[in-house]
Amino acid sequence: MSAKNTSPNSSLRSPNSAAVTLHGHLQSLPSDLAKLIESFGLISLDMQTQFPKYLGGSSGDKNKYGEATAKLDNWANGYMCDALIKTGLVRTIHSEELREPLYHNDTAPFVVTLDPLDGSSNIGTNNPFGIILGIYRDDLPQVGRKLEAAVYKLYGPVNTLVYSVSGGDGVHEFVKHYHADGHAEFLLLNKNIKLPKKGGVFGIGANPADWNPRFAAFAQGLHAKDGLKTRYSGSFVADFSQVLHMGGFFSYPATKKIPDGKFRLYYECIPLSFLCEEAGGASWDGSASGDSVLDRIDNDVDARTPVYLGNKELIDRLKKEMRK
Ligand code: F6P
Ligand code: MN
Question: Which CATH class is domain 18-190?
Fold first, then answer.
């Protein structure tokens, strides 16, 4: 399968014929899972060709979290949900941008969580944004450990897709290439990605004046002791991609004003924490019990959670420093 390219630059890229395609790479997986991941990739390519039509600001609507949505948020959600349903593989879609879950086909194998456009505040400035998909066989709510697979798509200067499956062989990254005939395809860029041992960057959201003082001291230490550089893009997918490749730390913490944090447990934090842990990193939900985000129990699929993720030593140190 491949998506038709409409870019004027299509003839500039001619992938090496020996390159590993996403399609080929997925062949060791159960066929239904392979088909769903590949379909998600192709849908995300098709979508991008239409982004310029939907750039014009706010939709005028609010989502279930009371947040004003961008035109592109609503369009991306509708497009992705319709296309996922057409695969025949999805039983239920839980989306950040749907007021109720979309129940479709009782006999289809998968339940998915969707953040159809992560980092909407970057649309107007042409900064990166992405899509986050969580794939389960069981109905939700479930602990994140029950994830079958997680996938993110990052629309940056190049277009990447990163996936990992439960019990699989790690986290793999693919990049969109164009064939000479104008068809686009994902080719393997990095296999079995591991966070570098020494972290390189960190990004932290929320107002620093509202951070817990212990957390603020830890954050300062990331600069002063660990020599990490600050990087905060306004898109969780993009910031996570930096931590995955360069090592380091990302958080949208709990503060007095937002004790449950800002990010969505199911739509955002579970899939990216799964990828982080599969790449040798760690995640924490801020709880006193020190749980990984993947062990957080919340029966509300729309719940928020504080999130802290990155190199394991940094997460362990943070947990210790927050307890002092
Ligand atoms: O989905 C939430 C989100 O858009 C993330 O992608 C991003 O990291 C964050 O919110 C940005 O929030 P803020 O504007 O508060 O920094
Ligand atoms: Mn998001």
Answer: alpha beta
